[in-house]
Structure formats: structure tokens, C-alpha cells
Amino acid sequence: MIHSHGIHRYGKKIKLIYAGDYYVSSDDEMIGTSLGSCIAVCLYDPLMKVGGMNHFMLPGKISLSENIEQSARYGITAINSLLSEMLKTGAIKSNIIAKLFGGGAVLALENKSTVIPDNNIRIARIMLEMEDIPIVEEDTGDKFIRKVFLDVATGNVYLKKILRCEYSDADDSDYVIT
To answer: By residue range, what is the domain housing residue 53?
Structure first.
């Protein structure tokens, strides 16, 4: 479910997405999400000014079976759905660039597996490579929670990385533009 909020800091409407969501726009607005082990793929066509973001939880599986998971909670479906919606909204595939965020091992304790975050990062890279979409910016892995905002008008991404023990909504002053 997409939630629309005003955001004073940027002077624009912001659409917030959650796990299993994706959103595409050609309006002058922001798209935002918060990530742990999940991934957000931001796609942007700088000529047509179309941008989109997804938020997926698990990589999904490529299978010969007809029972392939079709939920956008899975990377394979989420990336295909996002790209399809970008093209419907007027993006031209050869113009599209990608920015990739998330995959933090925020739930892993010392010496525990980071299989899910690592596989999420891997599937995003593979899917984008298969679609010939270059990844121009990436901030993935490590042990951070990330807040990510895509400015649809410019393609800029505002990123805040937070160590799990430092999480607070009170301080939004140190975003990095990518």
C-alpha cells in the first residue's frame, strides 16, 4: 500500500512504500522507504524524467514450475514489475539507470548467516544486468538500516544510514545525496 505524505524538508509530496510495494511517477515528488535486509531498486530515466522504486524482502526463485511466486515481495517479480511500470509511464529502456540500496545484515548477530541480505543484493544485480540497466550508484550490505528517498524530478537519491542501535526518527539532518 502506497502512503502519500507532505514533507516540509523537501517541499514536495512523498510517497512511502513498504515491503512488497513499488511505485513509479513522472510527477515532481519523492518516493521513500526504510530498509534493513530488504532491497530498494531505484530506476530513473533522466531524459523522460520518470522514476520509480521498489522494496523487496526476498530474492525469489527462477523455476521451471508454473508456481513461481508472483508477489512484489520477491526481487524477481519486484524488479520486473517496476521496469514494466516505468515503460508504461513513458520511460525509454535504453535511458534507464539504476541505483541500488539495502541488504543490511541488521538481524544477524555475530557469527550468524547473512544469506538473505546477500542473496537480495545478488538477485538485484543479476536482474539489472539481464535487463542491460547500468547500476550507477550502490550502497548495500554491512549492518545498516537505510532511509532512502528518490527525487523523481532530478533522479537524486537521499540516503541516511543508521546503525541498528542508533535508530531514531528525530534526526534527519545527515542525508547524503547520490
So the answer is: 3-177
CATH code at 127? 3.30.1330.200
Q: Pick from 121, 126, 118, 150: which is nearest to 52 by CA?
A: 150
Number of domains forming the structure of the chain: 1
pTM of the predicted protein model: 0.84
**Closest-CA residue to 146 (of 154, 158, 134, 128):** 158
pLDDT digits (tens, 9 = 90+) for 140-156: 998 889 999 999 999 99
Mean pLDDT across the stretch 76-105? Answer: 95
Instruction: Report the C-alpha gap between 142 and 102 in whole angstroms.
Output: 9
* Average confidence (pLDDT) over 112-126: 85
Measured CA to CA, the distance from residue 33 to residue 119 in angstroms comes to 20
